[in-house]
Amino acid sequence: KAVNDFLRVAAVAPGASIRATATYDAATLLVQQARWDESIRVLNGFQRDFPEHQFANEATQKLAVAYRETGKPTQAAEQFLLVATQNGVSADIHREALWTAASLYEQAGKAADARRSWVSYVARFPQPVVEAIEVRQRLVELAKQASDTADLRQWQQAIIDADATAGSQRS
Hints:
75% helix; 0% strand
């Protein structure tokens, strides 16, 4: 009932300043109720209609989760990549979002996108060393799958170099 009330406000008063908030509130309730397909529809509309709204970052985060929950790893990864670059969001959230995006691309069989995402991850987050080495190992595996010998050697050497300079964080 509340979702319908919020959506009715948004539909009846398309020019009203409360339309964005009503739409976002409806999407939030849909996510809380795990009504994923409906939440995707409402959140996509929110992103389209209110890209600069104060809740735009949160809408993108919710949309990423909704896509993941509906088994759409490529669309989820795209949204998680957006989360990984949002202003006003902590480095921990950026790191987790980028990791999730790369993992989802792998799950979707999008090796080139996964590789780009993992390369971005290790460039942006060389610490903690153990995680960064794990990412480099994933890049080694992806290079093997692609039969990319040069990339394979590069990432193998990167693992050796990272381990050699890790000090007390050494694996």
